[in-house]
Structures are given as C-alpha cells and as structure tokens.
Design a protein that fits this description.
InterPro entries: NAD(P)-bd_dom_sf (IPR036291), SDR_fam (IPR002347), Sec_Metab_Biosynth_Oxidored (IPR052228). By secondary structure, the chain is of the alpha/beta class. The chain contains eleven helices and ten strands.
Length: 274
C-alpha cells in the first residue's frame, strides 16, 4: 500500500484520483475545504474499509498558516508519503489579497505547494518510489517570473499571474529533485477541457467556458486523470512534463539553477514571514 496525499481532493480531478486510490486499497489523505464533499465521496464507495483508509484535513491553502498546519499534521502522523498530488484550485481573474497580505493566486498556486513539497521532503525521501504530481500546466516561458514583484503589485493581469505560477512550479521541481534525486516530479495539465464544478472568481469569458464549453466538449474527470494514475503507479526519478498522456519538453532557461535558488530564498522568506 502507498500513502497518497491529494490537495483539492473533494472536486473534479482530485476527487477522481481519491476515489481511484481508495478503491485500490491505498490510504488517502484529502486536503480541502468541504468536509461534506469528502464524506459524500467516501460514502459513495462500496468497500466498508474505505472509511478506515481515508482521512480529511480541512484547510484553506491560500493561507500559508493553513499550509504549515497541514505539514505539521502530516509529519506528525506519517513517516512516509509515497505520492503527493497538488491539485487544489480556485481561479481568480483579478488581484485579491488574503488576510495574511499575500496575493491569493500566488499563495494558493505556488506558496502552498512550496510549503508542502519542502515541508514533506523527509516523508517523500522515506518512500522507495516517491512522486509529486503538480497539476500546473507546463510550458511557461523561462523568464515569466518577476522576481522583484512576484505578487504583481504593479500591472497585474491574469495572464502574467498564471504564467508566474506555472514557471515557479517548474522551478520548484528543480529544488525538490535537487534535495531528493530519487523523486519523480511531474508538472501536468489535462490534454483538453475537463467537466468539473468550477471554483473561481472570474470574468464572463471564463464563466462561459466553464458552464457551456466544458460540459459540451470536456472529458470526465475520471478519464482525464488516467495518465496521472499511470505516472503515480510507475514513477521515474527526475523532472518531467506532460499534457494528458503526452510527454512534452521541459522549458529550459539559461539561469534555471540560479532562478530556482532565488525562488527558494524568496518563497522561504514569504513563508516564514507570514
């Protein structure tokens, strides 16, 4: 059995992965905001032993204090974590500041992942075949991060924010595999739209895509995550990027190692300063 930790595991693709691994007999920890959705997910599974292997940890991962609390709970409870799936999502098209003073999208889509990946490094090293799957669509430009203003206090746009988060999560893979060369670190995005409940505060264009296009053209979450299941079942050490089942080239910049270290220093300061 493997211990699988899934953020955003009560909806969409995260919930589909939780159902799969619970059905397969693995202990699964779901990190999310809705206990009711978690209970419904577990009760819908026919195996009565599921409830014994399923754990819910309530957290708002846009808050660094909640991310740190999750790490403290998991490190106290588990000596080994075999798979960490980072799938929590709440899309914002406008800049929003959390109660901690962070830009919400940067906090949710990068800082929380940084806290979890670095904070659970010991538990991942204890696994024979550890894997981190980061559902951050690969392919952002190498220079996408404004290191002088990562929370985009000036000139915020959804496009800039999205590109920064995606690139930061690719660089996080450099930090994670530098610390643990046996780790499989995968940045992954679905091959096409996925039918799921849409959590976000967005404009009319995104709302139309979520409410009209996804039901018409999107794939079911259980179908979308099949490539992820294969990657978790058969992890290969090192970094890789995928769109659906297709391996895609990693973006390589001339200063990746230095940028990863710079990001580590930046994120570590933000995380500790909260």
């Amino acid at each position: 059995m493997r211990t699988v930790v899934i953020t955003g595991g009560t909806d969409g693709m995260g919930a589909a992965l939780a159902r799969h691994f619970l059905t397969a007999g693995d202990p699964v920890v779901v990190i999310g905001r809705s206990r009711a959705k978690f209970d419904a997910l577990v009760s819908a599974l026919s195996d009565p032993s599921t409830a014994e292997r399923a754990e819910f940890v309530a957290a708002d991962l846009s808050l660094v204090t909640d991310s740190r609390r999750v790490v403290a709970h998991l490190t106290a409870r588990y000596e080994q974590i075999d798979a960490l799936v980072l799938a929590a999502s709440f899309i914002r098209s406008r800049r929003h500041i959390t109660t901690e003073g962070h830009e919400a999208s940067w906090a949710l889509f990068f800082l929380s992942k940084y806290v979890l990946v670095t904070g659970l490094a010991k538990q991942l090293r204890a696994s024979d075949r550890p894997v981190v799957v980061n559902t951050s669509v690969p392919g952002a430009k190498a220079d996408a991060i404004d290191f002088d203003d990562p929370e985009l206090t000036r000139g915020f746009t959804f496009g800039k924010s999205n590109a920064q988060q995606r690139r930061a999560n690719e660089l996080l893979g450099i930090l994670a595999t530098r610390d643990n060369p046996d780790l499989s670190y995968v940045t992954w995005g679905p091959a096409r739209l996925v039918r799921s409940s849409f959590a976000g505060d967005v404009g009319i264009g995104m709302k139309l895509a979520a409410t009209i296009l996804a039901p018409l053209m999107g794939q079911q979450p259980a179908d979308a995550v099949r490539p992820l299941i294969d990657l978790i079942d058969n992890p290969a050490p090192g970094r890789a990027a995928y769109r659906g089942p297709k391996l895609v080239p990693l973006v390589v910049g001339p200063t990746d190692e230095q940028d990863a270290t710079r990001l580590d220093n930046l994120a570590g300061t933000d995380e500790k300063g909260t």
